[in-house]
Write a structure and sequence with these properties.
The chain is mainly α. The protein has helices at residues 3-20, 30-37, 41-47, 51-75, 79-96, 100-105, 116-138, 148-164, 170-181. It contains nine helices and no strands.
C-alpha cells in the first residue's frame, strides 16, 4: 500500500469514527455511517467488520480514561474513598459513552482479533476494578462476598436507572449503591 493510500485509509477511518461518535451505540448502522461519512460501505466494513467493532473503537478513549481512574483510585490512601471515586468515574464515563457498558460487560461478544487494543484495555480495567474493590474489602468497609464482576453490573444498573430518570439522580443513586455494598 502506498503512503498516500495509507493516509487516505487513516482519514477514512477517522471520518467514520467522527460521524459515529456521539450517536447512540444501539442505533449505529454501518450503511448510514458510510453515507454520512461520505465513504463507500465497503470502506466502513474494511475498517469495522461489524457494529461491535465500531463500538469498541469508539470506546477506546473511555477505556483509557477508566484505566486512569483505576490508577488514581489505587493512589488514594482511604480504600472506601478510592472505591467511591472510582465508581463515580466509571458511572460518569458509562453515561457519556453509550457503548462502554457493552464493551465492559459483554465479554463474549468481543472478538479479540477485531480490536485487540480494546480487549487489552478492558482486561487492565477489570484488574484495576478488582484491586480497588479488594482493598476496600480487606479493611472491612465493603462486603466480602461481592465480586468485581457483580459490582460492575451494579454500576451498569445505576447507569440504566439514571438514563431512565434524570442526570440529577446520579449522586443519590450512587450513594444508594455505596450504602448497599457496605458491611
Amino acid at each position: 500500500m502506498s503512503p498516500s493510500a495509507r493516509a487516505d485509509a487513516v482519514r477514512s477511518r477517522e471520518r467514520i469514527l467522527e460521524v459515529a461518535r456521539g450517536r447512540d451505540a444501539a442505533q449505529l448502522r454501518l450503511n448510514e455511517i458510510a453515507r454520512d461519512a461520505g465513504v463507500g460501505v465497503g470502506t466502513v466494513y474494511r475498517h469495522f467488520p461489524n457494529v461491535r467493532a465500531l463500538v469498541e473503537a469508539l470506546s477506546v478513549e473511555s477505556l483509557r480514561r477508566l484505566s486512569e481512574a483505576a490508577e488514581a483510585a489505587a493512589q488514594e490512601p482511604d480504600p472506601l474513598v478510592a472505591l467511591r471515586r472510582f465508581l463515580d468515574d466509571a458511572l460518569a464515563l458509562q453515561l457519556a459513552d453509550s457503548g462502554l457498558q457493552a464493551v465492559l460487560v459483554d465479554l463474549e461478544a468481543s472478538d479479540p482479533a477485531v480490536h485487540s487494543e480494546c480487549t487489552a484495555a478492558r482486561a487492565q480495567i477489570h484488574q484495576g476494578f478488582g484491586a480497588v474493590l479488594a482493598r476496600a474489602q480487606a479493611t472491612g468497609a465493603v462486603r466480602a462476598d461481592l465480586s468485581a464482576a457483580q459490582l460492575q453490573r451494579l454500576v451498569c444498573g445505576v447507569e440504566h436507572a439514571v438514563r431512565l430518570g434524570s442526570p440529577a439522580d446520579r449522586p443519590l443513586l450512587l450513594e444508594v449503591l455505596i450504602a448497599g455494598i457496605r458491611t
